[in-house]
Structure formats: C-alpha cells, structure tokens
Amino acid sequence: MAVSVPAVADRTGVLGAVTAFWSAYVLTRPLGSSIADWMAAPHAHGGLGWGVGPVTLSWTPAILGFVGCLMVSRRDSVAPGAGRP
After folding, report:
1. SS3 for 51?
2. Per-residue pLDDT tens for 22-69?
3. Are the CB atoms for 33 and 43 separated by under 8 Å?
4. How far apart are CA 20 and CA 59, in angstroms?
5. Measured between alpha carbons, how far is 19 from 46 in angstroms, rounded to an integer?
6. How far apart are the C-alpha atoms of 46 and 38, rounded to whole Å?
7. How many whole angstroms separate alpha carbon 18 and alpha carbon 2?
8. Residue 55 and residue 36: Cα distance in Å, rounded?
9. Is residue 6 packed enough to be buried (19+ CB in 10 Å), middle (13-18) or exposed (0-12)?
C-alpha cells in the first residue's frame, strides 16, 4: 500500500520521477533486506538456513533477468519529447 503512494504521486505530477523513485526505494529497501536476511539466517534463528552465498547466487540471476527484460522491452523509457512539461 505505502509503495503505491510514490507511484500515484509520480503519475499525477505531485512528485518528480527522481523523488518518486527514491521514495519508493526507501519504502521497499527494508522489506527486501529483511526477506534476504530471513532466507540466509539459520533455522535456529527462524530463517531458511540457505546462507548468504546461496541467497546471493539465487537473487543475482533474477535481478539481472528483470533488468534485461527492461532493456529489451524498453517499457521504462520515455519517448523523446513525450516527457512532462
């Protein structure tokens, strides 16, 4: 829910794209690191017990795949002259 606030603010022009990006990043960073920590933590501490190396190796291709999809699809690009005034 909270991450939708910067998205809506960007779409409506309340926030600039850079401010909206960093707002969303600040909101989602703790969640991502908490999930990674949970995956790496030992079973005795309530985690999955994968360890830091396997978590890193499992997320690296996923992140590279997402970035690669954006590079190929160009869905995140704005056409020249189509930016906000």
Report:
1. coil
2. 999 998 888 888 999 999 999 999 999 999 999 999 999 999 999 999
3. no
4. 25
5. 36
6. 7
7. 17
8. 7
9. buried
* Model confidence, pTM: 0.61
Report the length, in residues, of the chain.
85
Residue with token string 């949970």: 38
Question: Tell me, what amino acid is at 77?
Answer: S
The closest of 49, 3, 50, 41 to 22, measured between CA atoms, is 3
Distance CA 70, CA 63 (A): 11
- Domain parsing of the chain, residue ranges: 4-73
Tokens describing residue 11 = 């779409």
**Residue 77 backbone zone (phi > 0: left; psi -120 to 50: alpha; other: beta):** beta
